[in-house]
Amino acid sequence: MLCRVADDLFWMSRYVERAIGVSRLIDVTRHLELDAGDVDFWTPLVPPGIEITGDVRFWLTSDEENADSLVSCVRRARALARGVRESISTEMWEELNQLHASLTRPTAARDVRGDTGGFHRLVREQLQHFQGLADATLAHDEPWHFIELGMYLERAHGITMLLRRQGHLLTNVEGRDTDLVRWLAVLRSAGCAEAYARYYALRIEPARIVEFLLLNPVFPQSVRFGLTRAMESLGVIAALREGAGNDPGPAVRTLGRVRALVEHGAVDEIYEQGFDDFLATVQSAIAAVSDQVIATYLRDQPHAGRLVGVARAAVLMAAQQQQ
Amino acid sequence: MNAGTTELTAYDLGGFWDEMFDADGHVREHYAPLARRLATLSAQDVTRRQLAAELSFQARGITFAVNQDPSGIEKIIPFDLIPRIITAEEWQRIERGLEQRVRALNLFLHDVYHEQKILRSGLIPPELILGARGYRRGFRGVEVPRGVYTHIVGSDLVRDASGEFYVLEDNLRTPSGVSYVVENRRVLKRVWPQLFTDHDVRPVEGYPQDLLDVLRAVAQPIAHEPTIVLLTPGVHNSAFFEHAFLAKAMGIEMVEGSDLFVDDATVYMRTTSGRQRVDVIYRRIDDDFLDPLALRPDSLLGVPGLLATYRMGRVSVANAVGTGVADDKAVYAYVPTIIKYYLGEDEILPNVKTYVAADPVERAYILEHIGELVVKSVNESGGYGMLIGPHAPASDREEYRRRIEADPRGYIAQPTLALSRHPSWQHDRLDGRHVDLRPFILFSGDEVTITPGGLTRVALRRGSLVVNSSQGGGAKDTWVLS
Are A294 and A164 in a shared domain? Predict the structure, then answer.
């Protein structure tokens, strides 16, 4: 398949997954605020080094200045989908196109303010529907594997990010009730409160939450699950390239090493070695995999046309007479 | 009494040839079932279907970006619910006329890029051809597979006040609009399926497969299982939706210039598993931009080395390079001569009377009658670069007068036609709007294939004669009865 198409599918899929994560985070934090009162739960959600003057919730949801806001992610995913709409199914395109249209409508801002919970739930459902359509309407061949790879790398990255930003909630400080509310919020932010309950059938505890989110082999939101699936798809992609007589590059080994880390890790060891260090290691490994995938598979050779004069190219594209 | 019946009797012909009603205001026979169907519905019901159709286009993202506007604003082409119906007999004649035209134009293109017999015959002034902006001197002597220059043609037909079909222009470079033919049909079937039970309408869904057959037929013999790609200028182009639509329907890759490269006289695309050879390029990029080494050095859209490879016969390009010479609007005036010269036949579909400003006598006529004529720049399309004399302010007429005097070769003029009208659904009632018809003609070297019907474009602004989508035109589903 074309490098450009693979590139766009990979990022489209990442932005959709990222949007789901952002939406869940906002939804949960809003609930947390209602339950646990006068603590500022919003500021820790802003990455270090970024100054925000206005409302954090707006910054996360609709701020176009924030490249990772919910609306920005959907906009970017939709723009990429539009460029490769011949490679995705009509159903996928229409789902994303309609979601984008509903988010950019003038009344969309009112929906956000009016019924936050309903709004985020609706958006999330449509994005997850999009992911379901990708699974059900595309052949599970190379383009689909790039979509999978993007989705699972993004998800694994998103969960580690969530644990770093909400890690402060996983402590024993207050009374039992309040702690429980905070811990549940972390699980809900990852969309796995119910699955956790079913899996452990035990009281909720911070260490078990960490174990569940990082090391669980069967729950689709866990980092281990995500990296395993990413590995499967990368394996197929690499084999195709090797089969054509070309070097599959270092991404397979980098991904294999970080997956081994979560596959053979234990939660007490992780705490001993330093929780945040561990998360940082996993995160930078995922970033390295992403970079290596891009270098090997998506930039087979430098694309002069893509790197130089993008604005000029847009003008020329538009000017091509279609009679 | 119901609203539908009321509307039909209140319809105003406005003194034009109407596709649905005869001069006495009676419904033409082939429209009778449609008229009966309309009479059973209330105006609200028809409007509801109209809205459903518009929503469907929006939801499916069937949009075009307005040319020269890279801000990326996407619009839908307004869809007019009431279908245009063409009888089998009318269509037969159109089909024969278009086939004749396309065959003659391909022989003409072959000739002007080889022996140039027609130029020596004295029938066409040689400077008109050799000086045409679309003439590619450097491609003289290049062999194209199966002698096909125009694999895809979109000719614009209009009907005048007498009901006669004329060819207004031929689009021989990168004709667009065929995706709307297919999509308009799909949407009308979805929002008003009952209509199709009353009529025997010929399907249009075969176009992409027919196009694929043509593209496969012109692959160089070295390719056993040819790799075919569609070369698009990219997402900012007005016809990007169509490019994606066709690539998807044919199951071929849609590529941008930067996805391709040339090595050792072979065109390759960059894929995730390495390079892959390309045999046929269906390009939707103008000649000038295909190869920065050959034509426009500043083009970021093309592929360096593509044209040298093409010249060596190692990749096929559809449409061929240099077809623009035959859809130059001044050369158009000579198409009846061209048909006679190469086929020995009279033209089946007449041309619209055309005054070529390069000719001193005709130029004098144009300058004198500019207020009655439509003046067109010979190389523009999409409704750009034209003056409709009777509707234009005096200052515009002066401007065009100056332009014609400065560059006579650049302009032609035609009488302002009383384009036929068709009922259109406007503000809860039927109202007449001017229409044209663009059939799509495929040529593989042996066979000419024409998808039944084509794109009916509608000038939605009341009284307007401009049907181009870039200028506020809409489109209708177009039926050919079997």
Answer: yes
Single residue among A99, A118, A138 that ends a domain in this structure? A138
Sorting pLDDT into bands at 50, 70 and 90, what band is A87? very high
Higher pLDDT, B293 or B183: B183
Whether residues A144 and A113 share a domain: the answer is: no
- Work out how many domains chain A is built from and give that number: 2
Q: Can you read off the two tokens belonging to residue B248?
A: 């998807």
Residues 241-300, chain B, touching A (beta carbon < 8 A): 242-245, 247-248, 253-259, 261, 269-275, 284-286, 289, 299-300
Residues sharing a CB contact under 8 Å with residue B441, sequence separation 6 or more, in sequence order = B98, B99, B102, B152, B153, B154, B155, B448, B449, B450
Per mean pLDDT, which range of A143-152, B29-38, B468-477 is the poorest? Answer: B468-477
Among the candidates A116, A138, A160, a domain finishes at A138
B154 close to A (CB below 8 A) = yes
Mean pLDDT of the B360-382 span: 90
- Tell which residue, B333, B54, B285, has the closest CA to residue B173: B285
Beta bridge partners of B479: B85
B-chain residue closest to A303, CA distance: B258
- The reply to whether A115 and A258 lie within a common domain is no
Estimate the crossing angle of helix A223-243 against helix A142-166, to 10 degrees. Answer: 150
Which single residue is written with the structure tokens 């990022």? A11
Distance CA B266, CA B227 (A): 12
- Which of B61, B175, B256 is opposite residue A305, by nearest beta carbon? B256
Contacts of A297 in chain B (CB under 8 A): 272
Closest-CA residue of chain A to B231: A317
pTM of the model: 0.87
Q: Hey, are the CB atoms on B58 and A101 less than 8 Å from each other? A: yes
B327 near A CB under 8 A: yes
Range of the domain at A316: 139-323
Q: Which domains does chain B have, with CATH numbers?
A: 3-90+177-204+424-480 (no CATH), 221-314 (3.40.50.11290), 355-416 (3.30.1490.270)
